[in-house]
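Deviation from plan, reported transparently: FO1 complex.
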Amino acid sequence: MLVALAGGVGAARLLSGLVQVVDPASITAVVNTGDDTVLHGLHISPDIDTVTYTLAGLDNRETGWGIAGETWTVMGALAELGGETWFSLGDRDLATHCYRTQRLSEGATLAQVTAELAVARGVTTRLLPMTDDPVHTRLTPAGGRGEVVPEIDFQDYFVRRHHDVAVSAIRFAGATDSTPAPGVLDAIAEADMVIGCPSNPLVSIAPILAVPGIAAAVAARRDDVVAVSPIVAGSALKGPADRLLVELGHESSVVGVARLYAPWAGTLVIDESDAELAGKVEAEGLTCVVAPTIMATPALAAGLAETVLIARG
Ligand code: FO1
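Because the crystal trials were delayed, the predicted structure below was used instead.
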């Protein structure tokens, strides 16, 4: 049994590789829900949906989110009404959020709804939200000297502002009062190995580890944890991970990732383009594996999955 700590598109790609090389049902993905938001009264869980759609073969590879071949009738009609359209919800994607919101209003947990949606999409990999409780990633834009700037929600930062604003702090509101979703801690304790997917260290992996009990459970398995660096040649392949790392005082490199992950990961897989930094990664106390990590095709995703499985030894 494998456990994967998962954010959005990078995690979804690695999971799509893993399901090519091991039984999909033998994988449990513990998915970040700090990005979850409510829009139009609908509960949206972007990372859960990205993973589900990808494993169902429905993912939109151009955007990295949503469903391929979407139609946008509802968004168009909403625009005519002057409604909020900065967060694009395709017609089929909207059905997911309607289903989730209805089931939550009936008293189902997020974990139950996530499992129902996975079954409906034919996904046999076990998908667990990190928690059933509300946890919200909130970011503080960097102000000028002495200026007090209010926090903003993750999707306000990421989508509405195109993550084009410097950040001075990140907080996972609600995390200290949250508990891991049922099955998360047992899955981590019983897994043959735990995989840190190539997701944003500060806004995808960190919120998962902020749920009380999860960081300790993963650290207890440190020798069996293999993480994949989302930073390649100093940059994020997608999204603001590189800028966020620098803005928050970390190094945007595989060495910076190694420093952040050293408490809980025994091995870090880095891209071939960073091969010369392998020694510095190992100096942080992790075993370093150098391999191609850019999952541009399903075959490359399967190749990285094989690398990760072998890396644990
Ligand atoms: N990302 C965007 O950049 N623009 C969007 O309009 C957008 C819509 C959207 C709708 C549903 C969904 O599940 C995800 C969506 N995303 C969008 C992606 C998402 O907000 C972020 O990529 C993740 O939260 C980061 O992992």
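The longest helix spans residues 91-105. We consider this an acceptable substitute for the interim report.
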